[in-house]
Sequence to fold (220 residues):
Amino acid sequence: MKPLKRKTSKQAGFSLVELMIVVVILTIVFAIVAQGIMSLQNRNTAEVSKLDIVQSTRDFLDQSTRDLHQSGYPSVKMIVGTTCASTNVACGLTAVSANQIIFEGDTNGDGNVEQETIQLVGSDGVTVGGACPCTVQRGSVNKVAGGVPAYYAELGNVINNGIFSAYDATGTAVALPAAAAALPTIKTIRVTVIVQGNDPDPTTKLLPVVSMTAQARINN
Fold:
C-alpha cells in the first residue's frame, strides 16, 4: 500500500519588484491629482480675487456717480433770496481737475448740503495725482460745518492717473483743470479707473487688471 501524499498549495504573493512598481505608479497618480487640485485652487483664488475687484470697483463708481447726480441740488433757483454762499443751497461743481472733483449737493438725502470731494491720491496717501498705485477717495463735510472732508470710502490699487474727464452740453471736452467760468458749462463727468489685483493668474503669472468707466450727468 502506497503512502498518501499530502497536497501542498503554493502561496501566491507580490515580489519586491512588483511592490515597487505599484508604489511608483501610485506616487505618480497622486502627484498628478495633487497638482490638479492645486491648480484648481489657484485658479479659483484668482477668479474670486478678480470678481472682488470688479464688484468693489463697480460699487465705488456707482455711489460716486449717484453723488455727482446730486451736485447743485438744491440750487439757488429753488429758494428765493439765496445766493451760492448760502449754507442751505448747493453751488454744484466748485473744482474739477483730472484727479480731483469738489462739489456741493444734498448727497445724503437728509436735507443738508454737503461739500463732497472725490480724488485720486498717490502711493504716499497724500499727493493728489501722485505716483501710482493710487487710491481713489470719496468723502464729504457738512457745508455749514466746513473743514476737511472725512474720507469714508476708498478704492485702492488704481494704476492710472487722470481718472476724470468733463464735457459740456454738446459733448465737447472741457479742458482740465476747469476755470471758474467753465464750471457751469460742465454737464457730464466721466470717471475711468484701471484697478490691478493682488493674486496672479496661475497660467500667465500676470496680475489681473480691471478697467471700468462710469458717467454722471450734472445738474448745475
